[in-house]
Design brief:
The protein is α/β, with parallel strands linked by helices. Helices cover about 20% and strands about 20% of the residues. Strand 1, helix 1 and strand 2 form a beta-alpha-beta unit. The C terminus is likely disordered.
């Protein structure tokens, strides 16, 4: 899991809280429900999460985002290929048209 904090997150405790969640949810009984699903190779999803880190983007694409702009933000944030869940998190001042993207970027 990799977070992109989009906008001004200075002083917001969500960055700490969600990073802690990402580090600790894997292996939990709650997350174990995901083991009933399959990945693209027909194998059960593991009860594990790897928190790969996060980055901040201070409105590089403005405050009203299209799907293409979200993709630009994601591509700019990655320096190496990433496979998994990528979730750009906008501040309330930056509504977005697109939401969570999964797969390889």
């Amino acid at each position: 899991m990799y977070y992109i904090w989009y906008g001004n997150w200075t002083g917001n405790t969500a960055t700490t809280i969600l990073a802690d969640l990402a580090r600790n949810i894997g292996g939990s009984p709650y997350f174990s429900i995901n083991t009933s699903y399959y990945d693209t190779t027909k194998k059960h999803v593991l009860n594990a999460v790897n928190f790969a880190g996060s980055t901040t983007d201070n409105y590089s694409q403005g405050k009203s985002l299209t799907g293409a702009q979200v993709q630009t933000i994601v591509n700019s944030a990655l320096t190496t290929p990433f496979e998994g869940i990528m979730h750009p998190i906008p501040t309330p001042a930056a509504p977005q048209e697109a939401s969570t993207k999964t797969g390889e970027f």
